[in-house]
């Protein structure tokens, strides 16, 4: 496939190992915590599932007054995660990748919960946005189902949100996330058992209205004549399919992968579930653990989505977010080179997409990014010890640092923070987006201070240090292209440890250019860099021209 964008950074090439690798992925969902452990065959590349774990914790059962996660549920979740860790360790998993979704995203104490998990278990959990969740669901489904280059619509009904995705074998065209989920709707809209007709009709109309935007977005991205197959993934859809399969054939299917459920069959199930109490639903053969309480709301979400999409049937896929987390890890570690190759540049493509959206001068920002990367590389191991992951975040911030001009020139660095923070950068966790936004925020004016919002955000002490140091580097990179004409071709760093001094050798693009404005800007901005790294910075203009030295 043609590479649609050229990355402005380079990762360290990874040679895929010959032996199998074992990886675990954990999904902290609104209803349940799930873990999948897989064995990766890097020669294919592919993975096989060797273990699954699940515990219904109900993170979405939050305090009705404050919206916070309840202490007893936090305790239960931490215990479950500890058990998952032990299982992964027993199977010799080399690493555990964990993500948290809507319940933790929306809880005021959600980030405190994740900090507690890391402190007590040493497990780092990435908080991801609704769109990022949708992207990884897409990757998971694509890993378990052949699309044959045809468009498919994917629906994932979770406890707190529902993701609707339109994609083909190459890319996701539409990624949406809506705040309707089986647990959320049950707790907020259902107060009777069995449900009354009045509540049921309101449940249907509310769900229909909430799904309207996502459905319209999917339909708007269909080409004339396209009729995508609908794929369903999640416990709700699997449970509905299991009940139908058992009652239709009397046999428990060995796998639900590829099982087809018609809209008519679903309608019959909804009508039946509506009339039953929780205890009666729990007695239905095939009803999964603790699913009876929330299955009606989940079934209504599916019915309304299928009706609005015009889909007469849905096909089950047993792979979803957890498997998508695995695929995303494989992409990031160079274990997938051909299939899904387009996905591997998702970070760069989305940074450039945001840059275009806010009319960033890409020629200029690319020069700033290259200066920032050069300064990062030349000071690595002496002034700082950040690695390739942090370097990539610096690149993203450098590309987007001036995006705030789209709002206003005045205080544009603060506007840049807001636009990046709310720009749905796919491929990044919420914490990584926060870091990128803060790096852009502090490329000028005041450096980070303890009274600033950065220290009240979800960033750890180490991450705050990263922002302070990398934003100091970004300041110098911006100064090196003060006139935005590419006046400086190259910069070289010389570090004298005993003197605690850094000499910057500045090579102009044109031999007769004294680069006076760039040198003035460096002198004006170097104070933050000097204070942050405890060095003296001296800039010297070299006489020889080194045009095109990047």
Folded structure, characterized:
By secondary structure, this protein is α/β, with parallel strands linked by helices. It is 45% helix and 17% strand. The chain folds into three domains: 21-128 and 323-333, Nucleotidyltransferase, domain 5 (2-Layer Sandwich), CATH 3.30.420; 146-318, Nucleotidyltransferase, domain 5 (2-Layer Sandwich), CATH 3.30.420.150; 347-541, Hypothetical protein af1432 (Orthogonal Bundle). The longest helix has 24 residues, at 197-220. It is elongated and about 85 Å long. 47% of the residues are buried. Mean pLDDT is 89; it is low at 1-17 and 338-344.
Quick overview of this protein structure:
The chain has 550 residues and is of the alpha/beta class. Helices cover 45% and strands 17% of the residues. It has three domains: 21-128 and 323-333, 2-Layer Sandwich (Nucleotidyltransferase, domain 5); 146-318, Nucleotidyltransferase, domain 5 (2-Layer Sandwich), CATH 3.30.420; 347-541, Hypothetical protein af1432 (Orthogonal Bundle), CATH 1.10.3210.
Mean pLDDT: 89
- CATH architecture classification of the largest domain: Orthogonal Bundle
Q: Could you say how many structural domains there are in total?
A: 3
Unreliable runs: 1-17, 338-344
Terminal residue distance: 27 Å
Entry keywords:
Nucleotidyltransferase, domain 5, 3 domains, 6-stranded mixed β-sheet, 5-stranded mixed β-sheet, 18 helices
Detail the topology: elements first, then pairings:
Layout: E1 21-28, E2 32-41, E3 46-56, H1 71-90, E4 95-100, H2 102-106, H3 110-121, E5 125-127, H4 130-144, E6 152-157, E7 162-167, E8 172-178, H5 182-189, H6 197-220, E9 229-233, H7 235-249, E10 260-262, H8 263-275, H9 278-282, H10 295-309, E11 313-316, H11 321-332, H12 346-357, H13 362-379, H14 388-400, H15 412-421, H16 430-441, H17 461-479, E12 488-496, E13 501-508, H18 516-533, E14 536-541
Parallel strand pairs: 1-4, 4-5, 6-9, 9-11, 13-14
Antiparallel strand pairs: 1-2, 2-3, 6-7, 7-8, 10-11, 12-13
Helix pairs in contact: 1-3, 4-11, 5-10, 6-10, 7-10, 8-10, 13-14, 13-17, 14-16, 14-17, 15-16, 16-17, 17-18
